[in-house]
Amino acid sequence: MFSRTNRPTAGPELAQAPRKPGVASLIAEGVQIKGDLASEGDIHLDGRLDGDLRAGSLTIGETGAVTGAIYADCVEVRGRVTGTLCARKVRLLATARVDGDISHTELAIEAGAQFEGRSLALVTPAAEAAAEPVLSVAAE
After folding, report:
1. What is the reported pTM?
2. Residue 2 has what pLDDT?
3. 40 three-state secondary structure
4. Domain that holds residue 55
């Protein structure tokens, strides 16, 4: 009378469920890495990196330092960066020290942060389209 014949199985629908963001990879204070570092996820750096870094999101703690190029979607700096930084969203907090150029879509700098370099705005396709002049023809 109350029977169920179609039970859920571990088919493609369950196997392809979207991955939820996990915990950031932590590079602790006192850890020193020489070489390039890449992660699709988030990184929290309290140690030192001498090399280029690619990540989805990067937080550099007060004791963290990077000497090299940084490429990420979002970067929050509390520590030190020597080199170029390229990210959609960049936030320099009061304890940050950045020596190098920053390429960004959004840039926020708190009072007390030190920044020596150039700020270069990244051009997005939407901004590029908005900047195109609109031609109008006047009727005579």
Report:
1. 0.74
2. 56
3. coil
4. 23-115
